[in-house]
Amino acid sequence: MSDTAVKDLGQAAASAAGPRDYFALLKPRVMSLVVFTALVGMVAAVAEGASLDARLAAVALLAIAVGAGAAGALNMWHDADIDAVMARTADRPIPRGVIDRGSAGAFGLVLAALSATLLWLASNALAAALLAFTIFFYVVVYSMWLKRATPQNIVIGGAAGALPPVVAWAAASGAAPPEAWALFAIIFLWTPAHFWALALFREGDYARAGVPMMPVVRGAAATRRQIFVYAVLTAAAGLLPFAMGFGGPFYGLVAAGAGAGFGWLAWRARTNDGADLRPEKRLFGFSILYLFALFAALLAEDLAGFYV
């Protein structure tokens, strides 16, 4: 097929794309988690004394959501070749041919610039700079470099997904205090256990795509050992808000109980012989519940405190 014909097909695909296809580029499930953790960071900052107008808070959260979507679109732009050979990602807009890579890249760049500018106008330069750095780190450091270079890709790259509460705290207060970084630590340490559990039962996908995820490079047994270590570290980090005084007794109980469950399921996966991957699937499912439970408990305490 000639280059002209390929270009014509790409243009036809782009013209056939609808709003739903462009929305899919934003990775809406990831975006929803980003918005939720950012909301908790923002409310926690207000509970700790920050003052923020409700309308500006809504605009700031919108900017963070748009920034997360921009990172998702740029990730799909860069990883289109990988997405096309992985069953988990083959149905994304670019592999399906409904959006061409150039359009996805341009869309992501516009959203990235818009999100950082909007956050600057709605809050402050620190929050905008942190959001811009988050997008840069996810796209350039993780997607373009680490993802295809090292089995530690998700460990280091997980910093991007852990930054939204810090961005939101900065948007509310103009600062990024230790409390904000405690929330960062929880998500940062949670990410390897969460993604490596997924990688254990999606190993074939990553192997076909040539992505050096831990199970592909180091094997399942080594991955299970590291999952357990990170689960224990995550459970310990989950207690930081309580230990630092911005999480109350209810949060402490939730964090302790959920952390014990996370550690137990990680141990079950650690001792699994690999013949049945149900322990890994249970751990992956619980890991999502774990993170939601901790942040929801902190949010509930802070909201309740506003009315006491």
Highlighted features:
308 residues, Four Helix Bundle (Hemerythrin (Met), subunit A), 2 domains, flat, mainly alpha, Tetracycline Repressor, domain 2
Structure in words:
The chain is an all-alpha fold and about 300 residues long. The chain has two domains: about 160 residues, Tetracycline Repressor, domain 2; about 130 residues, Four Helix Bundle (Hemerythrin (Met), subunit A) (Up-down Bundle). It contains 17 helices and no strands. Helix 3 packs across helix 10, helix 4 packs parallel to helix 8 and helix 16 runs antiparallel to helix 17. The longest helix has 29 residues. The protein is flat. The N terminus is likely disordered.
- At the fourth level of CATH, the homologous superfamily of the largest domain is UbiA prenyltransferase
Distance separating the two termini: 69 Å
Query: In terms of structural class, how would the helical and strand content be classed?
Result: mainly alpha
Kindly give the count of domains: 2
Membrane topology: Multi-pass membrane protein
Enzyme class: transferase
EC number: 2.5.1.141
Transmembrane segments: 30-50, 56-77, 98-120, 126-146, 153-175, 181-201, 227-244, 250-267, 288-307
Summarize the structure.
The protein is mainly alpha-helical and 308 residues long. It folds into 2 domains: 158 residues, UbiA prenyltransferase (Tetracycline Repressor, domain 2), CATH 1.10.357; 132 residues, Four Helix Bundle (Hemerythrin (Met), subunit A). The chain is 80% helix and 0% strand.
